[in-house]
Amino acid sequence: MRRRTKKQKQAIIENISADHDVALSSDLDENIDIIKEMLGHSSDLITRKFVIGAREPIQSAIFYINGLINEASVQHDLLHELVVESREAEQTYKANCFDTIKKHLVSIGNVNELHTIAELFHVLLSGDSIIILDGQRVALAIGTRGGEGRGVETVTSQEVVRGPKEAFTERISTNIALIRRRIKDPNLWMKSYCIGEKTQTDVTIGYLNGVVNDKLVEELDRRLKRIKIDAILESGYIEELIQDKTYTPFPTVYNTERPDAIAGGLLEGKIAIFVDGTPFVLLIPCLFEHFLQSSEDYYQRTDIATLLRLLRMLAFLLALLTPSLYIALTNFHQEMIPTTLLISLAAQREGIPFPAFIEALLMELTFELLREAGIRLPSAVGSAISIVGALVLGQAAVEAGIVSAMMVIVVSLTAISSFVFPAYNLAITVRILRFGFMMLAASLGLYGIFTGIIILVLHMTSLRSFGIPYLSPLAPFNLTGQKDIFIRAPLWKEMTRPHLISQKNIVRSDSKPPKPPKED
Amino acid sequence: MKKLLIILLSLIIFTGCWSATELSDMAIATAIGVDLVDDQIIITLQVLNPAEVAGNEEKTSRTAITNYTIQGDTLFEAIRKLTATSPRKIFVSHIRTVIFGEALAIEGIVDTLDFLMRDHELRADFMIAVAREATAEEVLSIMTPLEKISAERVYTSIKASEEFWAPSKEVKLNELANAIITEGKDAVITGLAIVGDEEKGKTIENVESTVPYASLFVENMSVFSGDQLVGWLNEEESKGFNFITNNIDNTIESISWKGSDDISLEITKHQSKISTRLDGELIVEISSKMVVNIADVETDVSFESQDTLHEIEQRFAKTIEALMLASIETAKDFHVDIFGFGEQLRRDHPREWEANYKEDWLDHFEDCKVRFDTEVDIRHGGMITDPIYPEVDKANGLEE
């Protein structure tokens, strides 16, 4: 076999891409050269040449990326076997060498054959070790993925009092395992994609076959395959590329780092999207109600859960409307305020230099700044923000007579309410809308606020998440769905899965209400 | 996107342009007083100084209220004229009381009522009162202890006394207007009087001493014929009026047992109903039921026997009936039907009302017979059963 010239090699390297693949050469050195060349002689590519067998030695080489592999397994289960053990064995490896190697030498479970350079790079850069043999046009990929990563830790963004505390991690295999551990059903199916031309990110969708709507899986499959992008660094990329509508303040894809929330969603007939490299797993379809529910609702007693849900809905309205209602009432509808309260408000506003709207805008803006600063600050200086925020801005501003005490109360109430939602992205939605409502209130009073609410509801009813109306089961109305919206009915009453999401296998529970035993 | 931008921009630009008023740009009025002096309407407007009423700043020695007085042809004109005197726009939605001077009430109040009912800024939940032997301005000028705003003081004390003291009644705008307009019914309005030194009562000294120099007193009821004041009921008659019109929540009434007024009973529940009967002649039936507690006994009586209790109930019923009768007699003297007997007759017998009574109802009212049917039920005797008086007398050696 004639060796390719340097020029030819260069041509091969330039032409290789996902679309245009090149088969491996049978020449060991040429393959090594191509691989090294394509990685730009990167220092973390480890190449090791060695000889297999003593009787009929085969020149071979192993490649792996330092840091991506499980060091121990490469050393003990691979190199030791290949280099040391193969020499003592009686067999020859020349004929049918890959089968023999697979059967006798490699004590690692996951072994695949590779035929092209692009394939080779994909698995190499995912952390597998590659073995190539002289005279063979096939390479072996050995599953040695490993390396450093974060372990399973407690949730940070959606904490609960009662319920599991473990959260997803950055590693997709761990995340899928966390779900498998919760749903031990062969019908829990996983389907993998590789998205991102440069990042080659693993994206896996998971669903409960037989419960999920097949059309939904097809639609998601279509949308995922449509993605043409160089990089997927976080599940937010996927979310933005598959959501139904971009220009809306409302999120139509749910994300969580709680495995129990994802498991709950799967059991309702939804689809989970795991993305490698982020602890945030997506769930579709996603309706508005999900953002006002916490997985804890199902772990607490039904009455507590119902109360908390109603509280969250109140918080949603408060966070959205408190400043605008304050502006509307004090600027336009003073006759609606009880006399004694009006007197007290008027007393506080004596000498305040700004109109109520500007005052509210200033304080809300300050709060948003504080909040953003609080997130970005290193935790060591984080407490400084609260001191500045509470003392300097709150108290001093009131004492200096620049803002009224009532406005500070209004802004604080708004702030507290916006932290009540279990979902952070709805809190952001409310933050955006709040300013719009404040403007409406300042220019048109209560009339403006109600116009705004009507427009908002119209917009929300027009939204769809993978074909499911965003406000269902409220609009379109579905009676059985009401068991899990404002109230959380006892589990033995929630007999069916959500109406629009799952039409197959809808019976969830056949339990009878618990009763004490009959006495004779 | 473009549309959205235009909407957003216009929202920002138009902010505050459309009939918005900042709280600090308005003067909150709490009371209107209307007087008639030399055929000119004099308006007294009580305006708040909010910082003195609420807020956490140091209070100054300024008063919490300021009264503006102005002369005008109509109420509305006078209020607008006030803007020249007052530094801020007068805001009348939070009016708590409207007080008519006695002189104006005698002339007729209907001109002012129209404005009060028509103006969109006004809420209709204010209290209406008539100043007795005083002008509204004088009443509003009295500095009141406890409540810094005298209008609020008037409002709350009328409310409280209506609930716990029989002769009082709160009269609000709609009720008053109805009573004036309705055939077969005339209006009453609560009275307000100044007791004590009126001049000193206007100064801050009034609230600096434990016994105020002058204070406001919720008076008995004034009686109107149409929109004109024709006279006043006394305390007994006011009580009788409230008993007839089912306006008693809780009050005290005494009967004479051995001496005079020596057993007091607290009425805790009261229900009365007026009905009319045409039996050749017009008979008005007033049936009332009440539940009472024994509140105070200043004589030697044992409540152990049912007969005694029955006797007390009987006598109490008679006392109440006497009050009601006195009230009706006075109304007949004034030639006004403040109880709404005529209205009741119209409802019970509309045809006869149209045919025979409508035209000269007040003459028929004077001739009508009234029958009472009063039920009294003693529920509780209080924490002790027999009175302690006999024991005290024994201890004092006054045993008979």
In short:
Chain A has 520 residues and is of the alpha+beta class. Chain A has helices at 6-15, 28-38, 71-88, 97-105, 117-126, 172-180, 214-226, 235-242, 259-267, 302-331, 339-349, 356-376, 382-399, 405-418, 424-462; strands spanning 45-52, 58-65, 111-114, 129-133, 139-142, 188-195, 201-208, 254-256, 271-275, 281-284, 464-465, 468-469.
Tell me what the structure shows.
With 520 residues, chain A is an alpha+beta fold. Helix content of chain A is 44%, strand content 12%. Chain A has 15 helices and 12 strands. Chain A has a 5-stranded antiparallel sheet with strand order 1-2-4-5-3, sandwiched between helices. In chain A, β11 and β12 form a beta hairpin. In chain A, α12 (356-376) runs antiparallel to α13 (382-399), α12 crosses α14 and α12 crosses α15. Chain A is elongated and about 105 Å long. The model of chain A has no long low-confidence stretch (mean pLDDT 86). With 400 residues, chain B is α/β, with parallel strands linked by helices. Chain B has 2 domains: 24-232, no CATH class; 234-400, Nutrient germinant receptor protein C, domain 3 (GMP Synthetase, Chain A, domain 3, 2-Layer Sandwich). Chain B is 36% helix and 30% strand. Chain B is built from 15 helices and 13 strands. In chain B, strands 1, 2, 3, 4, 5, 6, 7, 8 and 9 form a 9-stranded mixed sheet that branches. A 4-stranded mixed sheet of chain B has the order 10-11-12-13. In chain B, β11 and β12 (281-297) form a beta hairpin. In chain B, α10 crosses α11 (306-334) and α12 packs across α13. The longest helix of chain B is centred in the last third of the chain and has 29 residues, at 306-334. Chain B is globular, with a radius of gyration of 26 Å. Classes of the chains: A alpha+beta (520), B alpha/beta (400). Chain A binds chain B through residues 330-332, 334-335, 339-340, 342-352, 355-357, 405, 436, 439-440, 442-445, and chain B through 8, 10-12, 14-24, 26, 28, 30, 48, 50-51, 53-56, 91, 93-94, 96, 121, 123, 152.
